[in-house]
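re: that chain from earlier
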Amino acid sequence: MNKYTVDAKDRNLGRVASDAARALLGKLQTSFSKNEVAEVSVEVINVGKMKLSEKKLKNKKYASYSGYPGGLSFASMEQVIAKKGITEIVRRSVYKMLPKNKLHHKRINMMATEEKTKYLRAVGRRKTAVATVRLYPAAKLSFSINGKELEQYFGTAELRRVAGEAFIKAKNDGIYKVSAVLKGGGISAQAEALRHGISRALLSGDAELRKKLKKAGFLKRDPRSKERRKFGLKKARKAPQWSKR
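^ sequence. v structure.
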């Protein structure tokens, strides 16, 4: 089996994907047959150092369909990276460049990707809100929430304070870029879910922060939620005014 390495450092996504697709098809070998799977192994390295413009991160959309009516959904490149990692967009790009036949899946499974950029990942929850958080080392603290900045996503100063409260309590020297995908719940629950996710991510990077974060109550998921309304009542417990006649 021939082994090929594609270096993604300082290269565009399309160039990297086309080189990987050519190697998977076996076009770099002396004997090429389009109706057979080539005995090759392709590894894409330095994926985290690939060139991605801000415009592409926000405007590029990936579609997914559940198979049910109304199940078509779209996600930006930034959201896909936050949820599944930058290696996922490389895999999808190469997958689209391969011929659409029965050998499609066999070929893509012969590719491996390596992400050099280290990050801290955790999931935070509050009520029905779920926050998938990744912390990347950076020069200054910044937020990217569902493709938006902190000020755009959380309209009030109080919600912005809650979202970044874990960094204040931790008082550690690390500076991170926060990339988060928020789903479900209301805007207030999402802010607390984000705080929960950031706290758990910081803890995974530095175990000594447990005492500070636990004392502040940021490591425990708050299980309180609004009780559902019952049949025949106005609210969860409130009943209509009783009348004798």
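The longest strand covers residues 129-137.
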